[in-house]
Amino acid sequence: MKKIILTGDRPTGCLHVGHYVGSLKRRVELQNSGEYDEIYIMIADAQALTDNMDNPEKIRQNIVEVALDYLACGLDPEKSVLFIQSQIPELCEMSFYYMNLVTVARLKRNPTVKTEIQMRNFEERIPVGFFTYPISQAADITAFQATTVPVGEDQAPMIEQTREIVHRFNHVYGETLVEPNILLPDNQACLRLPGTDGKAKMSKSLGNCIYLSDTEENIKKKVMTMFTDPTHLRVEDPGHVEGNPVFTYLDAFSTAQHFEKYLPEYKNLEELKAHYMRGGLGDVKVKKFLNNVLQDVLRPIRERRKEFEKDIPAVYKILEKGSIVAREKASKTLIQMKQAMKINYFEDKELIENQIKKFNI
Ligand code: ATP
Ligand code: MG
Hints:
The protein is mainly α. The chain has two domains: about 230 residues, HUPs (Rossmann fold), CATH 3.40.50; about 90 residues, Orthogonal Bundle (Tyrosyl-Transfer RNA Synthetase), CATH 1.10.240. The protein is built from 16 helices and five strands. The strands form two sheets. A three-stranded parallel β-sheet has the order 1-2-3. A two-stranded parallel sheet has the order 4-5. Strand 1, helix 1 and strand 2 form a beta-alpha-beta unit. The structure holds adenosine-5'-triphosphate (ATP) and magnesium ion.
């Protein structure tokens, strides 16, 4: 069986360091590993419209921003198909049929959607499109016959829902769809990177992000004003590293080389954490170190982005070409699905012959 990747992002803003460690960095590694037969990276504009229907301009503007972030991180259009969700109408058709395979009760149990509904204060006014987006996400994944979906932890319920739809479809209509597997980051800190405000998730919608395209000064400002341990008031006080995003970011980004370069008095992060917990280590010193680490990680990405920004029409061309390739793939899967569902009336010679016999009798 072919090894195929599908993953993507909502164009609700520029991509941030949560995306980077949660999925983006992994995608680039997988792309360059040469182990995958096909890689599809989707800008999920249709999904973004489910909770931004009154602000299409925001989505439109952010498509190119997300594409630039992709290219800056090393996604290569020669190796990965970069495309825009709304350009693949087959996905809507698939979602329409999948809707018959999922109950309202099941959708209501999705913990990520539950949190997102609360966050957006939808209460009873949830758009149906938003409520059902896990179904459309199942279409996105299965249309490309994806075997592997590299995502952050918040996406686990979506992959579970997709697997259920695949089982149900294959059970009812016969073996057609491919069951995908989630690929989570290995590093615990990267599963769901917290926001700079200490909230559970860095998220474009919460405004608590360090963006991949942030300037050097902006990154520094954000790091130096980051939420930290509120009980750590004086340098000599013992501090907490659990739930302290400064340390979570160090877990996600710092390496032995960073310690050698910027904090040689500590062998590694464990030593730094131990000192912080004992007391006698100030937040400013830790934040300055984190700033150095993040600057090192983000500088090359920002510089590559600047290069791609010089030719915006070329970026659109990449997305246009990618969308054509993606559409071909999705329409092949849709043909197979319709065959399985027996709604391929005009291609089914046997059906027509049987009908002739029926009416001749
Ligand atoms: P929005 O607020 O519009 O939902 P978002 O910041 O949650 O935006 P998405 O486009 O929904 O970003 O997510 C894209 C990918 O990035 C998904 O695979 C998701 O799991 C991953 N991701 C998003 N935020 C984080 C995070 N804070 N930590 C780890 N992975 C993340
Ligand atoms: Mg999200």
